[in-house]
Amino acid sequence: MGVFVGKDTKVVVQGITGRDGKFHSLQMKEYGTNVVAGVTPGKSGQDVEGIPVFDSVEQAVARTGANTSVIYVPSFAAADAMYEACDAGIRLIVCITEGVPTLEMVSLSGYLKERGTRLIGPNCPGIITPGETKVGIMPGRIHKPGPAGVVSRSGTLTYEVVYQLTSREIGQSTCIGIGGDPIIGTNFIDALEAFEGDSQTEIIVLIGEIGGTDEEEAASYVTKSVSKPVVAFVAGRTAPPGKRMGHAGAIISGGTGTAEEKVEAFEAAGIPVAGTPAEIGEIVEKTLASKK
Amino acid sequence: MKLHEYQAKEIFGSFGIPIPSGKVATSPEEAGSIAREIGKKVVIKAQVHVGGRGKAGGIKFADTPEEANEVASKILSMEIKGLPVKKVLVGECLDVEDEYYLGVIVDRKSKKPVFMVSSAGGVDIEEVARETPEKIHKYQVDPARGLMPYEARNLAFKIMSDGKLAMKTAKVLMQLYDVFTGVDASLAEINPFVRTPDNEMIALDAKINIDDNALYRRPEIAKMRDLGAESPYETKAREMGLSYVKLDGSIGCIVNGAGLAMGTMDMVKLYGAEPANFLDIGGSSSPEKVMTAVEIILSDENVRAIFFNIFGGITRCDDVANGIVEALGKMDIKVPVVVRLTGTNEDEARKILKKVDVVSVNTMDDGVKEAIRLSKEGE
Q1: 3-state DSSP call for residue A169?
Q2: Which domain holds residue A232?
Q3: Which of A17, A113, B222, B223 counts the highest number of beta carbons within 10 A?
């Protein structure tokens, strides 16, 4: 099972002939993802190790039945790629690209919402349902199928957490990297809602960081609407205010978005907050054991 | 990227927003001659990227050009919250009847531009938001059509009742929205927006923050970056595609990925030391990037140990290992180096690191503890 992606996922790669696009298309294929097509305008008729390349997403969808797009194009072309995928009838767009202008995301968000198209990202590692399909750039071999649903604003920090879980023999239902930008598609609440409804998921790991108020909103959503146990982590307790910590969205501004506020919100909602990535593994292990 | 007030006012002016006459000066003499041109009482304002300039003594008045020269000389030799003042804005001094606040930001929650207006201008708007939130009126804009004139009028009438003044204010709100979208701002703010005794509505101050992601398509704005306002090492990091923020601790951290970099800093603190920096070497790390990262970390004399925390995904561990070997060969590194490499090509990376004098560890926890222990050995 898992959420958003699984056995029925048929992937078209936008920007397949670029360096990163090609590398990760092959990595995804090796993992077992059903990569049915690639798109690079002007390169129709070529193939990337057997994956056919088309001029447009529309063509790719018509010829292969692709239902999910993953985007590796440069930042200046990313918004265009997302509109194109949406207009071609793609239902799930995963945008890996970092550096998309915020106001382009503002316009795009409304457009996608009206048409019911889900976006994951941008500026994210993608999504993986271990053992079934991987749509993104995360190292596949650190994952294994299991009961933990993971949702995170970060990339490598998520790998660290997943690695901790897997080394304790705790597998994952789906791991979703929602991205480090201020304006993103799928957010914590969307992921929590999906995990709550997923029969494979028994526990949810939520990895937040400084900036914005998504964690606070997630905490109050958990109180109202999530029956499964949730474990949280918040990165950036030592981050100074007013400085962007790598991610465009990771900034404490006007006194809001601090790690303390987020930790408090989780604790007030009865959600345990781990002090280190290793501690997440410990808490998840204990919680799962106590359920049995 | 933050713009200075004088830059923001130039942009406001070019979009038609009424601003007081004035110019930027880098020397007391220049300030004096601008004051002479203006020909009346002037206000001299430090141009630094920190809030609370006024309270720190960075805003002063001058009645004559001679006094302007004198005052500018004082302000130009000041440091405000650690930042040296290199420029002052010399502007005409206006009589003020009322002060308002007009601002527009990108709201992360609604994913829309949101206007905030208030009749309580001239003070810290965050303070107003905390203490008297009822005095702030918020309004979401549909980004697909932009701000409509009727919406601007309705917004203006929320904070003033006089029809003529509200029409003038509505026009400025429309112009402010054009600035916001026209330069890819994440914030555009007029505080205070003032009414003069002859009922002119003028932007007395100006603040614009630019979305860094959009700078590639705003080359004229990118040129406005004040290199004097960041340290040379921050500039160097940015040019190499590294994210670097200097902090005050002693443990230098070189990490791939922003979340893991923050997580590493937090762990340093949790285990009883302080991180010297945030540094994300990014996805595809060449040995060259690693070299630059080490150089930047070593420029900070508080650093007592360096910890590499790499979780290879796109980043290849062998690339980072080669960079470490090269850095150790070319630079005189006197502090201990602790390395944790996991992920893509980690076995090759371990072999490469056997050639050099570094402490290899298997986990992030061990790495942080070891770096802290070694940092204290020299004391």
Answers
A1: coil
A2: 138-291
A3: A17
pLDDT tens, residue by residue, A43-82: 999 999 999 999 999 999 999 999 999 999 999 999 999 9
Of B72, B92, B112, the residue that ends a domain is B92
The pLDDT of A106-117, averaged and rounded, is 96
Min Cα separation B30/chain A (Å)? 32
Whether A74 contacts A21, CB under 8 Å: no
Q: Which among B143, B314, B343 has CB closest to A107?
A: B143
Return the number of other C-beta atoms located less than 10 Å from residue B378's C-beta: 10
Residue closest to B49 by CA, chosen among B36, B58, B37, B40: B58
Q: Which 8-state DSSP code applies to residue A55? A: S
**Same domain membership, residue B154 and residue B186:** yes
What percentage of residues in chain B have a pLDDT greater than 70?
99
Does some domain include residue B272? Answer: yes
Same domain, B328 and B207: no
For residue B122, the surrounding DSSP H or E stretch is none
> In angstroms, rounded to a whole number, what is the distance separating the alpha carbons of residues A76 and B217?
8
Count: domains in chain B: 3
pLDDT tens for residues A201-230? 999 999 999 999 999 999 999 999 999 999
Q: In a mutagenesis test of the A interface, which of B104, B128, B266, B281 is the best target, namely the one with the most A β-carbons within 10 Å?
A: B266
Q: What is the mean pLDDT of residues A246-271?
A: 91
Q: Which of B92, B117, B146 is the last residue of a domain?
A: B92
> Do B340 and B238 fall into the same domain?
yes
Whether A240 sits inside 8 A of B247 (CB atoms) is: yes
The SS3 assignment for A140 reads helix
pLDDT of residue A248: 86
User: Which residues on B lie below 8 Å from A275 (Cβ)?
Assistant: 270
CB-based contact A139 B313, cutoff 8 Å = yes
Neighbours of B97 (CB within 10 A): 12
A149 lies in the same domain as A116 = no
CA distances to A79, A212, A247, B95, B284 from A251, rounded to whole Å, are 23, 8, 8, 37, 24
B352 and B237 in a common domain: yes
CATH number for the domain harbouring residue B43? 3.30.1490.20
pLDDT per residue as tens digits for the range B247-277 = 999 999 999 999 999 999 999 999 999 999 9
Is B177 catalytic? The answer is no
Which of B5, B151, B189, B370 does the annotation list as catalytic? B189
Whether B115 is covered by a domain: the verdict is yes
B260 and B140 both lie in a single domain = no
Q: Is B189 a catalytic residue?
A: yes
CB contact under 8 A, A102 and B247: no
A161, A205, A233, B97, B364 from A283: Cα distances, Å: 12, 10, 11, 60, 18
Q: Tell me the CATH number at A209.
A: 3.40.50.261
Using a CB-CB cut-off of 8 Å, the residues of chain A touching B181 are 103
User: Residues A10, A61: contact at Cβ < 8 Å?
Assistant: no
Q: What is the pLDDT of residue B241?
A: 86
**Contact in structure between B240 and B291 (CB atoms under 8 Å):** no
